[in-house]
Amino acid sequence: RLYLSVRDFIVTDITGDNFYTNTHSVRKMYVDDVNLNTCIEIKCNEDISDAVTVLLTIQYIKIDYERVDFTLSNVTGDKSTIGIVFPVLKYDKKFAYSLIVDDCRVDSNKLFFLINQKWVDAEKYQHFGQAHTTGYTPEKTLNYSDGFGVEKRFTYGVAIFPTGHNDYISDYMGRENPLPNYPYLTWPQLLHVLKFGNEMHFHDVFDVDTGTVEGILSGIGAAQDKTLEKTGTGIKVMVRPNGNDDYIEASKRHDDIVFMTTEGSNHTVSSLSSDINLLKGIIYRRNCDGITSDNFMSKITENASIENKWICDFTHSPSSGMLEGLVRLNDTYGKDGNDTVWFATIDEIYEYWFIRQNVKFRKEISGNDVKFTLFIPRLKYGRHTDFTVQLTDVGYVPDIISLQTDNVYGLSCGVKSGKFLVNFNLNEKLLDYAEEFVSLYEATLNDNDKVDATYFVQQLRVDLQAPFLARLAANENPPELKSISINGGAATTYDRNVSVALSATGSITHYKISENASMTGTEWITGTSKILSYTLSAEYGSKTVYVQ
Hints:
Blueprint lengths: L1 E12 L5 E2 L3 E8 L6 E7 L7 E11 L1 E10 L9 E3 L9 E7 L7 H7 L4 E2 L13 E2 L6 E3 L5 E3 L3 E3 L27 H8 L4 E3 L11 H19 L5 E3 L6 H8 L5 E4 L18 E4 L1 E2 L5 H11 L5 E7 L4 H14 L7 E3 L2 H13 L1 E7 L2 E10 L7 E7 L7 E4 L6 E7 L2 E7 L3 H16 L2 H11 L4 H13 L5 E7 L10 E9 L4 E2 L1 E2 L10 E2 L4 E5 L10 E2 L1
Parallel strand pairs: 8-13, 8-19, 8-20, 13-14, 15-16, 16-17, 18-19
Antiparallel strand pairs: 1-2, 1-5, 3-4, 6-22, 6-24, 7-23, 9-10, 11-12, 21-22, 23-26, 25-26, 27-28, 28-32, 29-31, 30-33
């Protein structure tokens, strides 16, 4: 249960005066079976005539593994060549995107409301449960799929101030009943957004000398202690504040911090190539304050075609352009587009890389069955225990994939782009969240609560979904459509894109919309919203829209 890692690797001549870069690399590290010696094989990549000295630092890290056993049944053909590889990006996506909101701002809730189809208020600071003023309810959730029908909503990180305060507010995050104009995110709100896969990061520290690395280290420790007290889990990513690289140096020395961000040129990571080392890595992030939707999408469009590219953005307050841009991102690269984006927090991306790097597996063949045992490493303060494996040389879709361990709560599989992929989710809290949000829907019978309940239920294995689906169905009422209106009842429009509002009772699951009364050739669309988008036919004249 120990992981061996090289932290530093320096090659010089014997005098130590001349340094060589990229001339040598570590080929293999292992502990021998006889004397338990730590052995390292170093490969010469170039022919160096002089003798060299190698200075390296090795580190042993204790890793907890979780075992997963599954069997492919009725396998035909050569079973000896069947193997397992991990795609570079989870779900075998093409590029990754991460988004962060700085300064512990409650503005981050705007992202939560938009992504999860909640009321988005025009008020700058919108807290949960706050009275509505003017605003809108999004037409749909923003998401991508796991490749086989399981919805994965966009997620984001919040750089928080666990120990933050000033002369007027003694504890930024400790306010129990924040007023509508209160600017900071509070602990109860953070706990709620974490359930949806969002994340928290280190940022400014308080009550220490932030002009020294030692002072910042002390502040990080205090912030971590407060976070553990309030959430039961810890932070492992540093979002460098104020251009202060002492935060970077302190993070390199702090054991809990595994990754960092910067807005400068000192980044070390820009893609997720198969040989990348993310431990103590640094990614550049773009400032999106006040950004327009066109500018927001420009960088993403520019990089979306680059295999395994990782893009990171941040803001202090999501602009209307960013909110519009996220909808465009969903419609272009998310589930409603080509479904190629892995929209994930830094923590999720790091944890998947950590699993890929440290997983162990073995294979057993018994008759026509092939059994795999995976040893999945668990990271300290890890919260994203889902991963994708590709079964190689299978040649067909197996009749049955059966589990022999009860720690897999979500399972989906199939063929995607000629690859047989299996998605596993080991997050035991999925059951708790399904119970929590189904119970909430049973209490309120609110359509929006049902959307959330369904989201958590659909992530579970099919057999685990059954009792929750029965409870959801028990409270469904058949939909009855009373009337429809276009653009709030407007008599004319010069824009073909219109909003169609339904006056309806009961629970909607699918709808058809057309200018053809017979609905000939019109497909059913999955959706629960009572506000629909529709594009009118091109020519000017009277239009009649029909909804079923």
